[in-house]
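Thread amino acids onto this structure.
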């Protein structure tokens, strides 16, 4: 640190103290997966006040009488932290003394302060100041010391990564996993084969406090060069719907099950390929004895089109061998029964599911309304989006609370806002599906057809919600539930009368035929329609803007609670 900052040697004690403090706040203990600071104090350190040793700073001059045009601050060099408070230790260039102060401004974008001090006041040419970069550090020791005080930058390419020992070790760890899992075999280049090229990706992994945990290197294939029918046959892999995951969690809460969540490391490397695939040797790790050879893949590799399908097939085969059976309608659910007991496995690929958008039920109407103007937004729309973000910032801890022992009956609320769209005058429908008091699925969408009355808008909404209920009904058969006469609550008696009347009335014949299937399920007894007053219509929040009191009431009725640690403790004790 002294060498990098060009600080005088008499500050070596300050450098050691600063290094120890920084290490205690930043280095993760592998055994406990915590920093020494967190082990001692029981809380994670606040690293927002850390600064580079030797950085240029300007402490305020509050100790002397300052004339009107006098300097309000001095030039100083940051040399450490005060142990008993949040003050900084600064070497004052004017007084040549070490001072402790909280009133200081930092300028870390400039070169080191000690280096600037040694520059002559005037120069004969206009050459710019040379700033040491990470690749220009004199030794590995200085590089490690620099990494303790400055955030590690992610390499943009393999050339930058090869200059950093930590990234070299990360790449070697990735290749070691390939060898352990027998991902590939080095072979001569086959005739009439053009191997795919590889690419290194680099990413710093952080925890929830944005503290860097480790450096992650990943070797991927440039799969965009693959051709369907030649390089692969099937690339589709089932993905769990958000409603299916909520049903799984609701069932676990109802049965008071223990839920285990696990992430398979290098999951795609376990999938077996059905096609012959060849890739070039990774850049920076060419075999010196066989530089012209290529790797023949025996397992799937990141970037291939068929990688998700290969992993799903491998996992399915393993579960089938262990006496699991696949869900009736959801291929991502695997179930194994033990007499009166049941083991349910919900499979999802984390690399796919993160891209799905499923807004919270309290903002889904607002987000869907703003999404209609994505093609040509204006300042007015941007203002409304900012209001949504302001609301989210104030309710960041709000989430769904699934209580146990509250029943498991399937119920739905359906509502519509007639001619709610001011541009097309189409109606907006909303639906909320509950398992007793637990909200599982919700939707808010503009109807794709034009209707002539409120009753017909409610009728179309009932048909759309009926389709969702039928899917959930089939999904729940895998859990051992067989629902009939499922109640659907609507606040329109006219829409209920139309649904229960099998006669095609002249005033409803213009409605698309696909919306009339609800009449068949009412006749079969699959569903039952009930009238509720608007005051008790829980889907009202999904179709229109509401006053504050009404909005807060419905948010509470939907089962949304503040999930802060204090509230969670209170809710768990109240059950």
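Threaded sequence (575 positions):
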């Amino acid at each position: 640190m002294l060498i990098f900052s060009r600080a005088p040697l008499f500050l070596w004690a300050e450098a050691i103290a600063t290094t120890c403090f920084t290490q205690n706040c930043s280095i993760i203990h592998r055994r406990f997966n915590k920093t020494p600071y967190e082990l001692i104090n029981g809380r994670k350190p606040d690293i927002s006040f850390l600064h580079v040793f030797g950085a240029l700073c300007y402490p305020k001059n509050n100790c002397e009488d300052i004339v009107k045009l006098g300097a309000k601050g001095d030039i100083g060099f940051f040399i450490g932290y005060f142990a008993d408070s949040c003050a900084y230790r600064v070497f004052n260039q004017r007084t040549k003394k070490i001072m402790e102060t909280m009133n200081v401004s930092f300028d870390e974008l400039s070169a080191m302060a000690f280096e600037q001090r040694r520059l002559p006041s005037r120069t004969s040419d206009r050459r710019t100041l040379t700033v040491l970069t990470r690749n220009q550090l004199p030794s590995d020791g200085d590089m490690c010391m620099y990494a303790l005080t400055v955030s590690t930058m992610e390499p943009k390419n393999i050339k930058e990564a090869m200059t950093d020992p930590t990234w070299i070790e990360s790449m070697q760890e990735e290749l070691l996993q390939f060898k352990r899992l027998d991902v590939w075999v080095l072979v001569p280049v086959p005739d009439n084969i053009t191997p795919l090229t590889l690419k290194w990706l680099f990413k710093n992994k952080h925890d929830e406090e944005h503290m860097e945990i480790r450096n992650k290197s990943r070797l991927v294939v440039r799969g965009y060069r693959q051709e369907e029918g030649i390089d692969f046959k099937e690339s589709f892999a089932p993905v769990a719907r958000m409603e299916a995951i909520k049903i799984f969690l609701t069932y676990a809460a109802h049965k008071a099950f223990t839920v285990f969540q696990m992430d398979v490391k290098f999951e795609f490397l376990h999938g077996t390929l059905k096609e012959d695939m060849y890739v070039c040797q990774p850049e920076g790790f060419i075999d010196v004895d066989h530089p012209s050879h290529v790797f023949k893949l025996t397992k799937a590799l990141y970037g291939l089109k068929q990688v998700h399908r290969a992993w799903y097939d491998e996992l399915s085969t393993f579960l089938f061998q262990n006496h699991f059976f696949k869900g009736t309608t959801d291929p991502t659910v695997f179930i194994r029964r033990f007499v009166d007991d049941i083991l349910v496995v919900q499979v999802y690929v984390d690399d796919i599911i993160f891209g799905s958008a499923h807004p919270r039920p309290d903002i889904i109407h607002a987000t869907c309304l703003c999404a209609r103007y994505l093609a040509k937004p204006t300042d007015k729309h941007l203002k409304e989006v900012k209001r949504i973000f302001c609301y989210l910032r104030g309710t960041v801890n709000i989430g769904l609370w699934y209580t146990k022992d509250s029943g498991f009956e399937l119920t739905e609320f359906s509502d519509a806002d007639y001619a709610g769209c001011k541009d097309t005058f189409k109606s907006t429908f909303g639906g909320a599906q509950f398992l007793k008091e637990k909200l599982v699925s919700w939707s808010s969408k503009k109807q794709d057809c034009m209707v002539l009355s409120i009753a017909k808008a409610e009728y179309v909404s009932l048909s759309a919600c009926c389709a969702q209920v039928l899917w959930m009904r089939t999904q729940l058969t895998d859990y051992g539930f067989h629902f009939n006469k499922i109640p659907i609550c609507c606040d329109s008696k006219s829409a209920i009368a139309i649904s229960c009347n099998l006669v095609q009335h002249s005033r409803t014949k213009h409605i698309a035929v696909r919306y009339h299937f609800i009449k068949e399920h009412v006749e079969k007894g699959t569903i039952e329609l009930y009238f509720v007053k608007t005051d008790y219509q829980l889907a009202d929040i999904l179709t229109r803007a509401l006053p504050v009191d009404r909005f807060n009431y419905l948010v509470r009725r939907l089962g949304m609670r503040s999930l802060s640690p204090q509230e969670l403790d209170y809710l768990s004790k109240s059950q």
